[in-house]
Design goal:
heterodimer; A: about 325 residues; alpha+beta; 5-stranded mixed beta sheet; elongated; B: about 220 residues; mainly beta; Immunoglobulin-like; 4-stranded mixed beta sheet; about 10% helix
Chain lengths: ~325, ~220
């Protein structure tokens, strides 16, 4: 066996490596894309998640031949050119000197350049798409969903403000009277604009299975978009180390039908109706006042039009 | 240097290194004493107080909670209760207050009746801009429990001025509420008033040190 191996030319070895690599790559790429791909994170609970899962499937599939080239070559070398254990020490000698090979070098440069450039084009194209808008990109996002401005003007977008505070999340719904709750509810099939901000330090809002993530910076309105596609739970976490209780800054949101969403909103408005006058008017950001608070309802009543605000009682039974 | 001297030096250096590492390790894993809920008439009872300055220990200027255990006040925020039961809290609030960072927490949540009893009066919402503001909150975010506790009046004539614990003769507000705890687990709780004066965003110091303005509620079977 060893004698046969020694008789092969470099070209024959290369052909064998090439065939092994090609066949194993085709099989593994198919397995990665069709078998493993549907299980890749973040899943398929939203348009954004589906888009990111597709990206992960493509990237994982493209990585397969690169990964296998290294391991097939390494394995082939170890199996064919290893020194036999019974080789006398006196017969050990260095292999032939490695010399440059323009053909290989050019091929290597071209293949790697094309691969990287293709990934760059693919990634950029995916980012521009609606599915790429799951990441916050500031108050004036570069990439917005199709018809974003028109939809916003026609209030087709549900706006949910995400407020981070050491160490919990609260959520405001400006289209429902500035309702603030400790729960995130959103209807499936509804395009949502998340307006993410913080009252103190930097947090990061991550709706894990929706593929939506945006930093929550104090004094910044960070916008991200999302559209859940199926009813279920949302795993929400803070992913910016924000202090001693960072690890417990998580909660569970809900994706429900439109009818159930309106039922929930009505119930929440009833629960929090007396609290509304104590909350600051909805704003993109909330900045601290000189007294340490963020809003004084006695000196900054809710903006007109509306009846003259009544004096705020010190407690409500 | 003789061989025995070298050996002694190595052993001493090794012992010092081990002692240093052990000290850091023990410091990192140290928890305050756990206070178990008292049983009264079949219900569980936890009694606590908040003070403006602890007055002793490693951080005498830190604002802090204390908890009553067997008739004595201990400096701890580790609480232990039984699962699937009601737990009644009584908290004596001796500290002054300020506006909340988020007035959303003016509203009581997570108690069995959605209210707290403030100085004998059932209350659902507390105005954090009223005189005294809100001194502290007792909140367990994972159980959606949030109870605001008004600070003593800015014109209080007899604020607590001694090292903790504060005696009932000093001005204070008494807040009572009941929560229902379910499955066993360990739930972090904290104050949401940025009361770490002098620290970044008011959330450093006592807000970020276990045993002062936050701790764990251990729910055991």
């Amino acid at each position: 066996m060893a004698a046969k191996t020694d008789e092969r030319t470099d070209k024959q070895h290369l052909q064998r490596i090439g065939v092994i690599w090609l066949v194993s790559s085709l099989v593994a790429m198919a397995l990665v894309y069709f078998w493993w791909g549907p299980h890749l994170p973040p899943g398929t609970d939203s348009v954004e998640a589906k888009g990111q899962q597709f990206d992960n499937r493509i990237l994982a599939t493209v990585a397969v031949p690169v990964f296998l080239f290294v391991w097939v070559y390494l394995g082939y070398v170890l199996l064919n050119w290893r020194v036999k254990s019974d080789t006398p020490v006196a017969e050990l000698e260095d292999g032939p000197a490695v010399k440059g090979h323009r053909g290989f070098q050019a091929t290597w440069m071209i293949v790697t350049s094309v691969t990287v450039f293709a990934l760059f084009v693919f990634g950029t194209a995916e980012l521009v798409q609606n599915a790429g808008a799951g990441t916050g990109s500031g108050q004036a996002p570069i990439w917005t969903p199709v018809g974003y401005k028109q939809n916003l003007a026609k209030t087709k977008l549900l706006v949910v403000q995400v407020i981070g505070q050491q160490w919990r999340w609260t959520f405001r719904y400006p289209q429902f009277g500035g309702l603030e709750t400790s729960q995130l509810y959103m209807p499936s099939g509804q395009e949502v604009q998340f307006a993410v901000t913080s009252l103190d330090v930097i947090h990061s809002f991550w709706a894990v299975n929706l593929g939506i993530k945006a930093d929550a910076n104090p004094g910044v309105n960070n916008i991200a978009f999302g559209q859940a596609t199926k009813n279920g739970l949302i795993n929400i976490r803070c992913v910016e180390l924000c202090g001693i209780w960072h690890g417990s800054m998580y909660t569970t949101g809900h994706v429900v039908s439109l009818a159930d969403f309106h039922t929930w909103v009505t119930a929440q408005q009833a629960t929090h109706s007396q609290l509304i006058p104590y909350l600051p008017p909805y704003a993109n950001i909330y900045l601290p006042q000189a007294d340490g608070g963020y809003y004084d309802p006695n000196t900054n009543p809710l903006p007109p039009p509306g009846p003259t605000p009544k004096p705020i009682p010190s407690v409500i039974p | 240097m003789s061989k025995s001297t070298k050996l002694t030096a190595v052993i001493v250096a090794l012992a010092v290194a081990i002692a240093a590492i052990a000290s850091v390790w023990l410091f990192l894993i140290a928890y305050p004493q756990t206070a178990q809920a008292a049983s009264a008439n079949g219900a569980q009872q936890i009694t606590m107080q908040t003070v403006g300055a602890l007055g002793y220990g490693q951080h005498p200027t830190y604002v802090s909670y204390l908890v009553e255990q067997n008739g004595k006040w201990i400096h701890s925020t580790m609480l232990q209760v039984k699962a699937n039961s009601d737990v009644h809290f009584t908290i004596y609030q001796y500290d002054s207050g300020s506006p909340l960072r988020n007035p959303f927490m003016d509203q009581v949540s997570g108690t069995t009746d959605g209210k707290e009893v403030l100085n004998g009066q059932p209350v659902r919402i507390v105005n954090d801009y009223a005189d005294g503001g809100v001194g502290h909150t007792f909140a367990i975010p994972s159980l959606d429990v949030s109870v605001p506790m008004p600070g003593i009046s800015s014109t209080a004539k007899n604020p607590c001025s001694t090292p903790a614990p504060c005696a009932p003769s000093f001005d204070h507000n008494t807040v009572e509420f009941t929560i229902h705890v379910g499955a066993p687990g360990t739930y972090p709780w904290q104050c949401f008033v940025p009361c770490g004066l002098g620290y970044l965003i008011g959330n450093g110091g006592p807000m970020s040190t276990l045993g002062y303005m936050g701790g764990f509620l251990k729910v055991v079977a």
